[in-house]
Design goal:
The chain is mainly α.
């Protein structure tokens, strides 16, 4: 483990003291700075998902599948963002990268609201939309991994699950805010005004949100864990060849995390991004009814997430992942059958699946960063998460829609979640429990250090 240089007391690099007013203020700032960036990122994805019919009308006269393909295309560049931002975040710090990614993300989202329609400028309209989605994907490749790493490294070891869960509250607040704003605009403007210009308003709101996030992040110091390693000159030579080092030294956590991310993201994008389209185009629910249902479900999930995070500090992360993926494997088909019965059945089915899913969502920030040591944590998280997300996450709405159209089987989203959960359960066998473990230093958390291995040899 890295030791601070002479003259730098270890207490300077400790997590904030929750018994002191200053410590509580610092952790609140860390939570706010991390969560608002996450909310801005997922606000965009949430808005795009619920206005996909308006996007289609304004940019893609060919049909909804083109709008869903554009949703998916941003995920193709997320791994590039992970490869770029991750190693950079391990070298120059988490804070600097997070400030840059939130500006890029919010700026691109804001710009979508300004793009003229296909009727006005022809194919330049979808081309510009795709360009903005690519910028969003590139910035998101560094945003989420960095925010989760930032939150995990600021949190006390015994409460990492609880504090880290607030980052995921930001995820769902972003989704819920986007859904609520679109529903409100539809109710007061009507369909014609929404088709013409109302759909642009939610995208424009992302600009001020990004500026607030940028301000909050700039008010914070970098994480105590990173500053300790940086002060000690603890960067390993392999950090200079980050990608080769990750594959050679940390392939086991990369593979294990990839399996969990597949389960996580197929559930996430099937439940939160594709569900409005599914309820409207496949179940025949009205636009306002589907948005109301999704909003109620998301608000319930937001309330429950901190409780799930606190529970993980007591029981561990692995039991919650086991219950979540096992529950989705068993209940996906019954809940999708229930959704087809009407609004009440759809609400119950969505709520049950959503509650099971939050056991994964609430523990991302306490599980994934703890799978890598400090000097490669940002890169390991960002690269692994975004490669798996690009393949199995952003493509989920498109895959679900295409499979239903080709087979006529409305239960395909349930099958897809079940298959992904089975992969996640297999990967969980190789995931180490890190409840209460320190994530400081240059060793994988929870594993014996080099000194301990030498002593026991």
């Amino acid at each position: 483990m890295a030791k601070p240089k002479k003259g730098k007391p270890a207490e300077e690099f400790a997590a904030p003291d929750l018994e002191s007013p200053e410590g509580r203020k610092t952790i609140r700032r860390a939570i706010a700075g991390s969560a608002i960036g996450n909310a801005t990122e997922w606000f965009d994805y949430g808005v795009y998902a619920v206005v996909v019919t308006y996007i289609t009308a304004n940019f893609f006269p060919g049909g909804t599948e083109w709008a869903l393909a554009t949703f998916a295309i941003s995920f193709l560049v997320r791994p590039l963002g992970g490869f770029f931002w991750g190693p950079l975040g391990d070298k120059i710090g988490r804070k600097a990268i997070l400030a840059l990614t939130i500006v890029l993300m919010a700026g691109a989202t804001f710009a979508i609201g300004l793009i003229p329609s296909y009727e006005s400028i022809g194919w330049w309209a979808p081309a510009l939309l795709i360009l903005m989605r690519l910028i969003q994907g590139f910035s998101a490749g560094g945003e989420y991994g960095g925010a989760a790493t930032f939150m995990a490294e600021y949190s006390p070891d015994k409460k990492r699950g609880f504090f880290g869960s607030f980052l995921e509250c930001g995820t769902l607040i972003g989704f819920a805010l986007g859904t609520a704003i679109v529903l409100f605009l539809q109710l007061i403007l009507g369909d014609q005004a929404m088709q013409e210009w109302g759909w642009r308003i939610p995208f424009l709101i992302a600009g001020p949100l990004g500026l607030i996030g940028f301000y909050l992040r700039n008010k914070l110091e970098d994480t105590p864990v990173f500053r300790e390693l940086d002060e000690a000159n603890g960067e390993e030579p392999s950090a200079k060849t980050e990608l080769r080092d990750l594959v050679r030294k940390y392939w086991r956590p990369i593979l294990a995390m990839s399996g969990l991310v597949i389960a996580l993201n197929v559930a996430n994008y099937t439940l939160l991004s594709y569900m409005p389209t599914y309820l409207e185009t496949q179940i025949g629910m009205s636009n306002n009814a589907s948005l109301t249902l999704i909003l109620i479900g998301e608000l319930i999930m937001i309330v429950l997430i901190p409780f799930a995070g606190r529970l993980s500090d007591k029981t561990g992360r692995r039991p919650l992942w086991l219950v979540s993926m096992g529950g989705l494997l068993v209940l996906a088909i019954p809940m999708y059958l229930l959704m087809s019965t009407g609004f009440v059945g759809a609400l119950i089915g969505f709520a049950v699946l959503g509650i099971l899913y939050i056991f994964q969502l609430a523990t991302i920030s306490s599980t994934f960063p703890a799978m890598f040591p400090t000097q490669v944590r940002y890169a390991g998280f960002a690269i692994t998460y975004n490669v798996a997300t690009a393949i199995f996450g952003g493509t989920a709405p498109l895959v679900n829609e295409a499979a239903i159209e080709s087979t006529g089987d409305l239960l395909f989203p349930a099958y897809y979640m079940m298959g992904a959960s089975a992969i996640g359960l297999l990967a969980l066998l190789w995931v180490r429990e890190t409840k209460g473990e320190s994530i400081r230093g240059t060793e994988i958390p929870g594993e014996p250090t080099a000194a301990e291995k030498a002593t026991t040899a």
